[in-house]
Design brief:
This protein has 138 residues and is mostly beta strands. It is built from 1 helix and 11 strands, in the order βββαββββββββ. The protein folds into 2 domains: 29 residues, no CATH class; 103 residues, Immunoglobulin-like (Sandwich).
């Protein structure tokens, strides 16, 4: 869908985009990424770069909590990401991390090597974790 028209009904109102054929409209706000980061989970986790994140809590090896600056309206947001254990090599692609605690103000995840969601000793800090989040902000 190419953007051919934006309709704005005033400040704070919804924005919609109409497809080039005119058959489909999409809410612009619904389609925007609301938060993202690239981080090193090493001994002192740190963002390489980020948007809408205020802090990182290191709960132990491969166990990270990230706090949003602007919170989500509910805990039903969605996210996608990838992680790599050495610079930009060996990216495991989508996945490689598992929900631990989902809240409107933060997200806690386990960074795992392998397919076992509980980690089973396979938790590890990655050189590059990348995630992006979509959903409704409060």
């Amino acid at each position: 869908m190419a953007l051919t028209q934006i309709v704005k009904d005033g400040l704070g109102a919804s924005l919609t985009a109409t497809s080039e054929g005119g058959a489909v409209t999409t809410s612009v706000q619904q389609g925007l990424v609301k938060a993202w980061f690239s981080m090193n989970e090493g001994s002192t986790p740190a963002f390489h770069d980020s948007f809408n994140f205020g802090s990182i809590t290191d709960n132990g090896t491969g166990d990270i909590t990230v706090a949003f600056t602007s919170v989500f309206g509910n805990a039903n947001y969605s996210l996608s990401g990838s992680n790599a254990n050495s610079g930009t090599n060996y990216t495991r692609g989508p996945g490689g991390f598992y929900d631990s605690a989902v809240a409107t103000s933060s997200y806690r995840y386990l960074s795992c090597f392998g397919s076992d969601a509980s980690g089973n000793g396979a938790l590890r800090d990655d050189a590059r974790m990348k995630q992006m989040y979509v959903g409704d902000l409060a």
